[in-house]
Amino acid sequence: MTDRERRARLATRHALAPAHRVGSPSAVARAMTVLHATEPATVPLSCHARMHSLTIREVDRALFTDRGLVKQLAMRRTLFAFPRDLLPAAWAGASARVAAVERARVTRDVVAAGLASDGDDWLDRARGEVLALLADHPDGLTAREIRGAVPRIDVRVAVRPGDPWTASRVLTQLGATADLVRGTNTADWYVSRPRWTRTRDWLGDTPAPMTAADGYREITRRWLYSFGPGTEDDLVWWLGATRTIVREALAALGAVPVALDTGAIGWLLADDVDELADPGPWAALLPVLDPTVMGWRARDFYLGPHREPLFERRGNAGTTAWVNGRVVGCWVQDEAGRVRVRPLERLSADEERLLGAETERLTAWLAGFRVPTGYVSPAMRP
Question: Which of 57, 119, 264, 370 is buried deepest, with most CB atoms within 10 A?
Answer without folding.
Answer: 119
